[in-house]
Specification:
alpha/beta; disordered C terminus; Purple Acid Phosphatase, chain A, domain 2; about 20% helix; six-stranded mixed sheet
């Protein structure tokens, strides 16, 4: 089998959906498990405002697009900010319940959920855990290790010593040559700290990941495509399904960009990630968008 990237674009209304590929190489003469999964992020269910006059329609459109994929993904992961923030605990739970009902239309059997600060920071993830379970966890799929981190439940934007100790223990169980995917809401590196686009102890998490040779991080939070390397670790952000934000550091604060009636849904989207030859222990990443 030859190495190759899978690049695909799918339309969402008048805009575009961003897709990415994550591909490895297969060992000679041995067929390997191949699969792909879908990442959706920053749906902000419950948001209302001018930046998206179709606030209650965007997520159902994305669900319909995922359900219409020619080949269904092995699983789907939502990387945080499932709902828009509210100070009312009852309203927070109502939005989460409604979100859960809407995404119940997904035809894929396995759907995993991670919190964003809009879901978890005001109650340290209590409502999220009631609705969706653990805020951080690990799972394996066809030779690829996945670690989902919670850098949002602590209002200080940290992972915290307990989670870092858990992460260290989980990583110690893994072959450092094996492919590893890390999922987070905020970036683990200091992209724009004054905008809250960072994790205060993210350097400690990255130090734990450095001995592993094949690490890719997928995150949300910044509502746009962005790519960064920290050593050999690749970081790739997902677009939002509610509204785009300005490019890193280009404004005084990250205020939602205005809706463009001439190009509705511009800047919104979700990502497909394809894994080829997972057991070979190497990950390559290619991206494209329109």
């Amino acid at each position: 089998m030859q190495r190759r990237d899978f690049l695909q674009l799918a339309g969402l209304g008048g805009g575009a959906i961003f897709s990415a590929s994550l591909a490895g190489c297969a060992s000679a003469g041995k067929p390997q498990d191949e699969f792909y999964f879908v990442q959706l992020s920053d749906t902000h269910w419950g948001f209302q405002g001018a930046p998206n006059p179709d606030a209650r329609g965007t997520l159902p459109k994305a669900i319909a697009a995922v359900n219409a994929l020619p080949k269904p993904p092995d699983f789907i992961v939502f990387t945080g900010d499932l709902t828009h923030t509210t100070d009312d605990p009852a309203e927070r739970r109502r939005r989460m319940a409604e979100f859960k009902q809407v995404v119940g239309e997904l035809k894929v059997k396995t759907v995993r959920f991670m919190p964003g600060e809009h879901d978890a920071s005001l109650d340290r993830g209590a409502a999220f855990r009631e609705m969706f379970g653990d805020t951080y966890f690990r799972f394996d799929h066809k030779g690829v290790h996945f670690i989902a981190l919670d850098n949002v439940s602590d209002r200080g934007t940290t992972l915290g010593p307990e989670q870092l100790a858990w992460m260290q223990a989980e990583l110690a169980k893994l072959n450092p040559e094996a492919p590893l995917v890390v999922l987070a809401h905020r970036p683990l590196f200091p992209l724009v700290p004054k905008w809250d686009w960072h994790t205060r102890d993210g350097d400690q998490a990255l130090a734990l990941l450095m001995p592993h040779k094949n690490v890719t991080v997928f995150y949300g939070h910044i509502h746009q495509e962005h790519h960064q390397m920290t050593g050999h670790i690749a970081h790739h952000s997902a677009r939002s399904l509610m509204f785009p934000l300005p490019a890193p550091g280009t404004a005084d604060k990250p205020t939602a960009l205005p809706w463009d009636p001439a190009a509705p849904y511009r800047g919104l989207g979700w990502r497909e990630v394809a894994v080829e030859g997972a057991k070979a222990g190497r990950i390559e990443h290619g991206v494209s968008n329109a």
